[in-house]
Design brief:
The chain is α/β, with parallel strands linked by helices. Helix content is 34%, strand content 16%. It has a seven-stranded mixed β-sheet with strand order 7-6-12-13-14-11-15, sandwiched between helices. It has a six-stranded mixed β-sheet with strand order 9-2-1-10-17-16, covered by helices on one side. Strand 1 (3-7), helix 1 (11-22) and strand 2 (26-30) form a beta-alpha-beta unit. Helix 3 (103-109) runs antiparallel to helix 4, helix 4 packs across helix 9 and helix 8 packs parallel to helix 13. The longest helix is centred in the last third of the chain and has 15 residues, at 456-470. Mean pLDDT is 92; it is low at 471-491.
Length: 491
């Protein structure tokens, strides 16, 4: 039987393991931490009984993931729950832009900007299942649905800030700019709208649900599916070199590229090692978890029903904040995402005490304490908010890396989603982005389609590995004992 080791148990590592196991491969997942899940872990971060997500909160890309579509996740306990409103962007004049799952309902709330919103999202959202077959794959390939992909892709070539100028009202511009900020890119760049357009389109098709019982429920369901297929998981197993691994036919790395280069050492082709060590990481997240008595007293009634909120201000404030972060500075109004997951999943609360998580976009490795800045930002749109705080836990960029080594200097996307790294396969320019070296593959969010709990980077990498292993090999030896030397030909 073919054997495989998966190093790392984030959603992509587990997706790779499940995919391999479904094809008869004997799989073992090795996780260095005491608990599996990577960015999809949850726990009591503030007060007993209050459940917070450690990182990933809402999952518009996961609920409709082609990987999950092939598995009966409900059988393994995964349940989705939806807030009444997906996202709200409060404005300083007391109004708010409101994002619903329905394109029509969202457009109706944007007044004169409704037709523009409808033209951007109605068609792609209606055909998202077909669109996902292309956008959730590497872009350097022949698409399955070229016309549909072109229809979606043309707007992504326009910088987000320029595309946002199509909107005439501040509500329309702000809602659009906030959604585009999910790409963590300066909005004057080409392709800066790509990730935001994808998330918004997926959200209009599936909504922005949360996993009942915390994002860890996604991890637990995938782990249960893997064990059902005969796969094994070991925790507390840190991998510093290939010699630490048991012999296997395949090794999948759910790791940041530089970590793979460190582990593989001189068994990597030199050009791959150079590319992996030069891989660029992006801005960081500064996260605060709060226990709130009675919830946040938002001025906007829509905000009190929304699972997610964008806190910054006007569209110009959002554009300025994202540009400042990429210049190594923090804007006076940083872009902040607030998660009220308990509104969709009341099991996370205890009586009138509710868990709230919020994170700000900050420069890579940012070391200053911005807790007060973030709390002030929320207070601006919810007077009296501070008086309801019962407990606070802060996780800065360096803490993020300690929590998950893939989040280098706080980069929770596992890589800057620049044109080069987004379009050309991640760590290096190649039509085979998942291939590392002989019988070694990368399956982390550093490779297409990138971050999220959708598992598609892991699924795609596993499919590539299965395809390659089925081809006549140049070497049949197990990876740790017969990997490529630095000058060996790449497969």
């Amino acid at each position: 039987m073919t054997t495989a080791i998966v190093v790392g148990s984030g959603p992509n590592g587990l997706a790779a393991a499940v995919t391999l196991a479904r094809h008869g491969v004997d799989v073992t997942v090795l996780e260095g931490a005491a608990t599996i899940g990577g960015g999809t872990r949850s726990g009591e971060l503030t007060l007993p009984g209050l459940l917070h997500d450690h990182c990933a909160m809402a999952h518009p890309m996961a609920v409709g993931s082609p990987f999950f579509a092939g598995i009966d996740m409900a059988r393994y306990g995964l349940k989705w729950a939806w807030p009444e409103i997906d996202c709200v962007h409060p404005l300083d004049d007391g109004t708010a832009a409101v994002l619903y799952q329905s394109v029509e309902e969202t457009a109706a709330g944007l007044g004169p900007d409704g037709p523009i919103w409808r033209r951007l999202f109605a068609g792609p959202a209606a055909g998202y299942e077909l669109l996902a077959k292309d956008v959730m794959q590497p872009l350097l390939r022949i698409p399955s649905h070229p016309l549909r992909l072109a229809r979606f892709g043309i707007p992504t070539l326009i910088p987000a800030a320029a595309l946002g100028r199509l909107f005439r009202t501040e509500r329309g511009r702000a809602l659009f700019a906030g959604n585009m900020a999910h790409g963590w890119q300066p909005q004057h760049r080409i392709l800066s709208a790509a990730i935001g357009l994808g998330i918004t389109t997926a959200g209009h098709r599936y909504g922005w649900p949360v996993a009942v019982g915390g994002s860890r429920a996604i991890t637990e369901a995938m782990a249960a599916a893997l064990r059902d297929l005969g796969g094994k998981i070991e925790t507390g197993f840190w991998v510093e070199s290939l010699d630490r691994l048991p012999p296997a036919d395949l090794v999948m790395f759910d790791l940041a590229p530089a970590a793979i280069a460190d582990i593989a050492g001189d068994r990597l082709p030199s050009r791959v090692a150079r590319a992996y060590r030069r891989f660029r990481h992006g801005p960081a997240a500064y996260k605060i978890s709060l226990a709130i008595a009675g919830g946040i007293p938002w001025t906007s009634p829509h905000a009190r029903k929304s699972g997610s909120l964008h806190i910054c201000g006007s569209a110009a404030d959002v554009v300025r904040a994202e540009r400042a972060v990429h210049r190594g500075r923090l804007s006076d109004r940083p872009f902040i995402i607030v998660g009220q997951q308990y509104l969709a999943d009341p099991t996370r609360s205890q009586g009138n005490m509710h868990p709230v998580d919020m994170y700000a976009h900050v420069p890579q490795g940012y070391s200053e304490d911005i807790t007060e800045v973030m709390l002030d930002a929320v207070e601006r749109f919810a007077p009296g908010f501070r008086d309801r705080i019962l407990a606070t836990t802060v996780v800065g960029p360096i803490d993020m890396q300690a929590y998950n080594p893939n989040y280098v200097a706080g980069d929770i996307l596992t890589g800057d989603k620049s044109i080069r790294q987004l379009v050309f396969g991640g760590p290096r320019i190649t039509r085979r982005p998942y291939h590392v070296a002989n019988r070694m593959f990368i399956c982390s969010a550093a490779v297409p389609p990138g971050p999220g709990a959708h598992g598609m980077s892991g699924y795609n990498a596993a499919v590539a590995a299965l395809r390659e292993f089925a081809a006549p090999p140049r070497h049949r030896s197990a990876v740790p004992r017969g990997g490529n030397g630095p000058n060996s030909p790449e497969h």
